[in-house]
Amino acid sequence: MQLSKFSDYSFRALIYLAHHSDELCTVDELAKALNTSEHHMKKVIHHLGKTDYIISIKGRAGGLKLGLKPSEINLGDLLKVTEDNMNIVECFSKPESCPLMSSGCKLKHISSQALNQFIKEFSKYTLADLL
Fold it and tell me: Which segments of the protein form a coiled coil according to its record (predicted)?
């Protein structure tokens, strides 16, 4: 499985904010530091700003900071928030797309188990473990 760029940027943004917890950061600063476009970073920050992960302070002296302690940010939970599509096989979302579904195909079950283990492995760690 490959993480989306959105998840990748989300993880990196939170790591950056954790490393700079003594200051407010800007989207522009994050984009430059993480070598991505400001447009992509705005989408990431907007999404994370709707959660407890990031606090966005508006105004001239505003900026971004972590909303939780790094030890409180579970990577599995973050992954579930940032991954738009975790269907590693098409039949997860479109069972009608596979003619084998009606004949008891076991691929979906195995794929589902693998996905659960992937998330479970991420869930063993927090942002603090990445710092």
Answer: none
